[in-house]
Amino acid sequence: MRRKADARILYLDAGAGISGDMFLGALTDVISRIDPDFDLGRLLSGIALEGWELSVERGVRCGIAGLKVDVRGHAGGESHHGHEGRERGHSHPHRGLAQILEMLSKSDISPEVREKTAFAFTLLAETEGEIHGVSPGEIHFHEVGAVDSIVDITGAMLVMEYLGWPEVISSPVNVGSGTVKCAHGILPVPAPATAEILKGMKVYSAGAPMERTTPTGALLLRVLVGEEGFRPLPEGTIISSGFGLGGRDTPELPNVLRTILYEPSARAGRFVVENPSLLEANIDDMNPQDFALAMERLLEAGALDSWCENILMKKGRPAVKLCCLVREEDVERCAETMMRETTTIGVRIVGTKRMSLERSLSRRPTPIGEVAFKSVSLDGRTLRSVPEYEDIMKIAREKKLTILDVRRAAELGEKV
Fold first, then answer.
1. CA of 341: how far to CAs of 138, 284, 299, 322, in Å?
2. Minimum mean pLDDT among 57-61, 96-100, 200-204, 386-390: which range?
């Protein structure tokens, strides 16, 4: 059964991190509260993977009740999920990207689920390849190639399809701290692959040392949320909420992922309304060539936008006004960046209001390779979709093509 979710939004409260089993548990809890007949096992039965069984049990973490999802291999009869499996040092079968893609091709799943799952594992192969200095095809996955993580990622896409592919947004994600034991030895948290996958996303660390966001959880954030999806809940009506339980019961921070499915109000659903701060500094004693790097550093620090304006100061002195729009939680960091990277000794902070169209980021295959497209929509209808400049610039440089040729290939599907 596939449910239609017109303009619905799924919010992830990742204050205790995210893993594949926590995500599946949270979504199953959300669905079961509005559809008591929902059967996760039946939904996952089309995955062409042998030697596993599913366990869904209600439990409690630090006083919060939710669902714990486990995938157990028949051979060992033990769960290999997330933090718990790594810490106990279970061995994992090694699978390559080709094996996983072949498994997906044989699975009784929709093309959309197959495409998104394949993209997640391809992204992981590329990330691991960069870290270990080999090609994606040479990578043999360890933890994320285990049967539980394959089911987690494919299952997550199946559950999202069941919900009608609502938009997914998230709070900043808690990655944890300390070290984690895995196939490559003892690594710092976040593990290298997790940190690379989360690049550009809002993260922090809190609570007792442990791995709170796993590579599987990071992949789900990258595929379903992206860099643009970290924002507060807009105005709306809650439909259902649920909790997915992690493998450990930590007293100071409930090891749970909370999800909220809700319907944005008609007014809030038409536009994204935010209240960012405007940071400004008038500068008349700085080399103009240095502003480009300053604006780049402001964006890295979390600024929503950054620009320069030519102004005329007192006594007729020409100057530059450096500006940036910043969310409340990034004001201090961006103000400090502005004072470090320029010659200004002070920054003005002005409260503003910004109304914008809904934005989403997706990656699509094109004749010149995979390209990220940014789409904007109004009332659920896509107004325009354009390729990301950084992607087409990178392809143009690598293939020695012009920007115009690459853009035409990406937008119109023309071969070059």
1. 42, 14, 12, 11
2. 96-100
Q: Which 8-state DSSP code applies to residue 396?
A: H
CA 4 vs. chain centroid, Å, equals 23
End-to-end CA distance of the chain: 42
Output phi, psi for 393, to 5 deg: -65, -45
CA–CA gap between residue 20 and residue 110 (Å, rounded): 20
pLDDT digits (tens, 9 = 90+) for 341-389: 999 999 999 999 888 888 888 888 888 888 989 988 887 678 899 999 9
Average pLDDT over residues 55-63: 90
Tokens of 383: 């107004």
Cα angle: 187, vertex 190, 196; to 5 degrees = 105
Closest CA to 32 of 236, 238, 240: 240
* Angle subtended at Cα 205 by Cα 202 and Cα 209, rounded to the nearest 5 degrees: 150
Q: Which amino acid is at 142?
A: H
pLDDT for res 191: 86
Q: What pLDDT, in 10s, does the model give residues 112-148?
A: 999 999 998 888 888 877 776 666 666 565 545 578 8
Tokens of 396: 């143009």
89 has a pLDDT exceeding 60? no
Helices (H) and strands (E) in the chain, counts: 13, 23
Question: Alpha helices of 147-303 — where are they, by DSSP H?
Answer: 147-162, 192-197, 215-224, 266-270, 291-300
User: Strands 64-73 and 52-61, how do they pair?
Assistant: antiparallel
pLDDT at 143: 47
Phi, psi of 309 (to 5 degrees): -130, 140
Q: Are 73 and 51 in contact (CB under 8 A)?
A: yes
3-state helix/strand/coil string of 303-349: CCEEEEEEEECHHHCEEEEEEEEECHHHHHHHHHHHHHHCCCCCCEE
What is the set of domains in the chain, with CATH numbers?
9-269 (no CATH), 276-352 (3.30.70.1380), 359-412 (no CATH)
Cβ contacts of 192 within 8 Å, gap of 6 or more: 131
Q: How far apart are CA 274 and CA 353, in angstroms?
A: 6
Q: Measured between alpha carbons, how far is 382 from 375 in angstroms, rounded to an integer?
A: 7
